[in-house]
Amino acid sequence: MASTLRRVAILLCSLVVAVATSGTAVAGIVDQTRAERAVGYLRSQQQPKGSIVAFSAIGSTADAVLAIVAAGVAPRVLDDAVAYLRRQTKKGNVNTTGLRAKVVLAAEASGRDGTSFGGHDVLGEITETELPNGRYSGATVFDQALSVLAGAAHTGTADPEAAAWLLSAQCPDGGWEFARPWKDGRDNDRCRSIADPASDFFRSDTNTTAYALMAMEPTTPSFAHDPWAYLLSRIDPEFGGWGYTFGFRTTDANSTALVLQAYTAFGQALPAGSLDALRALHHGRCGAFSYSWSGGRRTGPDLGATIGAIPGLLLLPFPFEQGVAGAPPDVPNCR
Hints:
CATH architecture: Alpha/alpha barrel
Low-confidence stretches: 1-27, 182-189, 193-197
Number of helices: 13
Structural class: mainly alpha
Largest sheet: 2 strands, antiparallel
Radius of gyration: 19 Å
Strand order of the largest sheet: 1-2
Oligomer: single chain
Shape: globular
Number of domains: 1
Number of strands: 6
CATH class: Mainly Alpha
Distance between the termini: 40 Å
Mean pLDDT: 89
CATH topology: Glycosyltransferase
């Protein structure tokens, strides 16, 4: 499990940033209350077997566990979600690098052991794929970052070789690309695919960049290119948060939350208005977050956005662990 000192340092850093930005809170609602109401919405969406399904049953439920732990409420919802993940692990359905990493993060955050979960050493199943250069075999850059975070959740520090490979995968624009191919360290064509550069539209993105930064933070990385300049260049000039990548710049809850977590991990001052950009996507009455904006209006309440928004709203970088107690507030159905 993550070291106590590291968890305390993260929480203190988060509190400092939160206090510095609290003057911009909307309608007098503090972010902890927003987060607890968001968990109330998650509770209303939990399936009878414990899953909380947005984009995928296992991945979303693991992310929801992290959101619940971040808010610190709803132990029954948490236990049911963890039980679902344990059953899926026992059945052999947690069978990719990314899913394994997410399950380890969820297990460790909730006080369980990622090396003995559902009858599996899930963390060991990840590290068994690590190659001599620190890369995880078959993993995307995104999954590499998740894997480093999973290891840090258990040991309290980042695997230096895996983090070094991640550092070497930085794109010349300062960001990281989701699935950058790697060929003897020579892929420097704006991080486009070696096999088919014309069809590799996304290049670097804010989500992979944020996860990579949080994963490398314990190693005090020396960046070849400025990642903060990259993130500043991706800010949505209209709504003040972050979208996914170059062609998708409109603020969305998930991207904005992850970037806020990355800034906090490194103790960087948040860009002006960026936390308010996430707050603006919250439906205070029913607790849910909208994913983004369309035609100047928020899109509808979204389960995946709500899951992703909570740790960013509370400025808690991954990995983290803390106690969970007390029921979330009852919230009306979102309409």
